[in-house]
Amino acid sequence: MAEQKIFAGPRLRRVRNELGLTQTAMAEELGISPSYLNLIERNQRPLTVQLLIKLSSVYKLDLEELQGEATVTVTALKEVFTDPMLADELPGDQELIEVADAAPNAASGFIKLYRAYKESQSRLSDLSDLLASEGRSTSVSSARLPVDEVREAFEGRPNYFEKIEVAAEAFAADNISGDDPGSSLKDWLKREHGIVVRLLPVHTMPNWRRRFDRHSMRLFLSERLSPPDQLREMAVEASQLAMREIVQKELDDFGFATDEARRLGRFEIARYAAHALLMPYNAFQSAAVRARYDIDVLCSRFRVSWEQAANRLTMLQRPGAAAIPFFMLEIDNAGNRFRRAGARGFPHSRFGGACPKLNIHAAFSQPGQVFVEAVEMPDGAEFLTVSRTLEGPRGAFNERVRRTALMIGCDIGFKDDVVYGAAASAPGLPPMPIGPSCRLCERQACPARAEPPLTRPSGLDEMVTGLSAFDYQ
């Protein structure tokens, strides 16, 4: 049987120093030569299983601690080097292990310094939001990933592209049948570009939603996707072929700094164009008004998913034919944000969207159920919010379903024009008091508070404890 070898020289050296032993003394107690111990401490010889047992019996050491002491440090160092500021300095796993082993105190100090830096960046971001809500512009610069650059660009502008809307309406009128849009798109792809659409089983395409094979001119879709999602993937492909120049022009206008950001931006614009193809502006806007923005009715009428119809409602801002200015937010059950968008840009300064009391979080407790609620901000502004969970691609028996929640909202002044308004304004049902985020909210005695506010000093009192986990003056 092969003997397990462990290189842990720096850790053994620390043990020896903590015990106050010389190399000669420790070598004698372990029954090895001082020169061999010196090689072990310099990681030129391994710690064998027999030597580990000897260390345990002589010095009462925890072998698991000796073998895995650096694991947590290495994990934390990996987190540090994922920061975009250090993207060009990414070390390999072995290099991180060597750093954690050879200089554990320096590594721990480096990790603490990085976490302090991230905390300061978070505070600066929160402070910038606070100043922006008061009408004072700020420019807090920080290293960003391409996905952050793209999100900020799309979230801060109206979710409306006029040239795409016009082109999509013309394409839909000529090529898409309302009775069977899927067959219409397949026929167009085959007729105009020689592309054949094929649905593939999970075992054939386990890792992709869609894949276009340029050599065989086939568009492969995963059977994991629901019919509305399959339809959207075909529409994405069609929009990139039929509106290539328009999509490229809209992308160029953003001026993204990197190729990765441009790739992500192109996907977002193509996704927008796909929704415009499947739900042409005039037809969808008219249907939305007649149905009083009932998302379930719109799903059935246009053969799309709840998420697609809700997303489309945030795009209806054509001059002279604008609908209610909705905004939306999508998160997972860990609170990670996927998308924010709005007809006039996501109202971050007025609404925030990071309050734990929002019904988007409660939606995970009852998947598929629609939650309607009126909410009130600290400054008195009120919003109507509608939330529901979304199911991701279907998994196999042993896979956990990807589930997110989407919230769509609008100013409470539009409640009489929306089918959900009556449910949010029932007699005796006051608006839910929320805040933009815990760090920017000064509501007293909030049991849902997760962090203390930046704007108030701490108010710890040995004689009094408030309902919040963070008391302040």
TrEMBL record:
CDD domains: HTH_XRE (cd00093)
A Pfam family per the record: Peptidase_M78
Entry keywords, A to Z: DNA-binding, Transcription, Transcription regulation
SUPFAM superfamilies (alphabetical): lambda repressor-like DNA-binding domains
One GO MF term attached to the UniProt entry: DNA binding
Residue intervals of the HTH cro/C1-type domain: 12-66
Cellular compartments per GO CC: cytosol
Listed PANTHER family: HTH-TYPE TRANSCRIPTIONAL REGULATOR (PTHR46797), HTH-TYPE TRANSCRIPTIONAL REGULATOR SUTR (PTHR46797:SF23)
Family: Belongs to the short-chain fatty acyl-CoA assimilation regulator (ScfR) family.
The name this protein goes by in its record: Helix-turn-helix domain-containing protein
